[in-house]
Amino acid sequence: MLRTAAAAFTAAALLAAPIQADPSPSDSAPTPPLTRSQQWRAVAVSALDAYELAPAPASSQAMIFSNALLATGRLYGWGDSQIPSLISAIMALRNPDGGWGVSIPWDAFQDGTTNPASTTYTVTLAGHVGPALLEAWKHGALTDPEPLQAITRLLVSGTTRLTNSTGQCLTYSRSANDAAYCVHNVSAGAADYLTQASAAGFGRTGLQQLVVDITRREVTAYRSDWAGWPYIDGQTVEQDPDHGAYTARSLYFLTYPVGRAGVYSGLSGAATDDQGRRAHLQLVSTPGGPGSQGLADPSTTLWCEMGDQWLAEAAAYVTASAGDAGRLSQAAAAAAANSIACQGT
């Protein structure tokens, strides 16, 4: 449902304003340009409005509703009237093991093995539902700790680990069909999420050592000639920009210099496809750090400044995504995060 009440309020306020004589050219003041933060907010609002008009998704609902929850909370506050229904929609999608997945049978690696619809996926826990519910918890919109406790349990104790001399990797899902695959963005994202969950009180015995071991393996897999990672461990080609951005942003918090190199690389290059455009969208909100403060304005971040060149691209991406709830919800959540990260500039 679109926010017609807000639109009506704006219209009423304009109608109630006193009518003034047209100012003379000398009296009129130029309209100040939108700030960087306001431009990103406009992209986010456009994406969320378009999402609310899109057909209901047939799959990946947990990811889509999680992004919609993040976008709504970030744009309109965590007390917004739509927050409870979005949390309820996410909770209604839980699998029997207490986790979340894509809600349809899926052969994730096109290897002839199809996971049932009830399969719990690592990235759905750590990259989609977990971050959304954790942010809702921090802002008081989620008051039941159980789902966050369950996510930590499933990641630390309930997901297969692939171990070698360089460290550990969490597998792609809890299905035996996927037990042979170490996917770098998925494992790095899990370690990043677990660090944040632990800081919020959702720790578990063995969590810290798992994070150390995943970080060791990801640093070893890092390729300095790419400033990135392969998608699956052992591959000799770099993963796509979208998944590469998620990996880099995750490592940014786990091993800063390596993650920073990946973030810089992801924001530097022009996008040749939608995966590159999504990479730009998700990296602008990366926090500052040593060597990552703004060059023109040290009060902001280098990433906010570098994101300026991708604002028009982001707006065009939203327009081109009409009717696609997944793309629109992801764009809305990312652009809203960019608006917050770049506030004041």
Structure at a glance:
This protein has 345 residues and is mainly α.
How does this structure look, described?
The chain has a single domain, classed as Glycosyltransferase, CATH 1.50.10. Strand 1 and strand 2 (167-170) form a beta hairpin. It is 54% helix and 2% strand. The radius of gyration is 21 Å and the shape is globular. The chain is mainly alpha-helical. Helix 2 (36-53) packs across helix 3, helix 5 (122-138) packs parallel to helix 7 (184-199) and helix 9 packs antiparallel against helix 10 (256-268). The chain has a two-stranded antiparallel ribbon with strand order 1-2. It has helices at 4-16, 36-53, 61-76, 83-91, 122-138, 146-157, 184-199, 207-221, 241-254, 256-268, 274-283, 302-307, 311-320, 325-341, and strands at residues 161-164, 167-170. The protein contains 14 helices and 2 strands, in the order H-H-H-H-H-H-E-E-H-H-H-H-H-H-H-H.
Round the Cα radius of gyration to an integer and report it. Answer: 21 Å
Mean pLDDT: 92
* Count of discrete alpha- or pi-helical segments spanning 4 or more residues: 14
Unreliable runs: 4-25
N-end to C-end Cα span? 31 Å
Sequence of secondary-structure elements: HHHHHHEEHHHHHHHH
Shape: globular
What's the CATH topology name?
A: Glycosyltransferase
Strand content: under 5%
How would you sum up the major sheet?
Answer: 2 strands, antiparallel
Judging by the overall fold, what is the CATH architecture? Alpha/alpha barrel
What is the percent of helical residues? 40-55%
